[in-house]
Amino acid sequence: MAATGNVTEIIFLGFSQNENVQKALCVMFLLMYAAVLLGNGFIVVTIVASKGLASPMYFFLGFLSLVELCYCSVTAPRLILDSFIQRRVISLHGCITQIFFLHFFGGTEIFLLTVMAYDRYVAICKPLHYVTVMNRRACGLLVGAAWGGGLLHSAGQTVLIFQLPLCGPNVIDHYFCDVHPVLKLACSDTFLPSLLIILNGGSISVVSFAVLLASYTVILRSLRSRTSAGRRKALSTCASHLAVVGLFFIPCSFVYMRPCVSLPVDKIVAVFYTVVTPLLNPVIYSFRNAEVKDAMRRLTRRKAVWGEK
Fold first, then answer.
1. Domain boundaries in the chain?
2. How does pLDDT run across 130-156, given as a tens digit for each residue?
3. Do 176 and 79 meet the contact criterion of CB atoms below 8 Å apart?
């Protein structure tokens, strides 16, 4: 049964009621969102257009950048637009739609980061079998599984919220719709839905973290027998991946792997996994990579030549 009750729209309190603060935040988030679009979009275009970036690592990186772009777009545009108005309102169905896509892209990103850790494990620990194990079909199936896993996770979270009777008051102290703030609007017992929401998000985080931990434990052990040059190259790639994992997993774990209560700091923490991580991903994972930078330069020169013609 769909959500019932007297709530048909939800009001966001946002970051601040001060008009000057809101304008400053609008400019800041507008610049950050533009950087997310340009950075991640350029990576996707570069990987698609460059034959030299055809390895599985860049295949997964291209999808990660696409997911980051979509993930940030679920919340950032609304946050920027709401900075211009005093009464920040979203319909109930719009709120539930936002929850669905937030967890769809967020869950997909978690699974993709796990897949990328497995890819690095095979590349470093099983180099002779890498081409066979990580063939085109296997890579496609892994990416499809990541999207499918994100969809199942999101559907579970959304159904749990959608079936709750929401009686209000219809004001949430956040800047977007998420499961914890919306649960506070329910006029029925939320213990079981809260538990299921934690188990849903927690199981994904725990399993993914276990795979990541196992992969990098084996990788670090195997690097002891490598030459110093090979060790540095492998550690550079792994360090970039671990930095992205940390920036995303730590804030998400803080919000979703605890009892369903909203804290004042949640809004600031949410900025990290919805905006800051997508913003830093191109810098950490791509612009420090020599092959990606070379491909970007070639693509830029090619576009310049076509422009002159």
1. 9-308
2. 999 999 999 999 999 999 999 999 999
3. yes
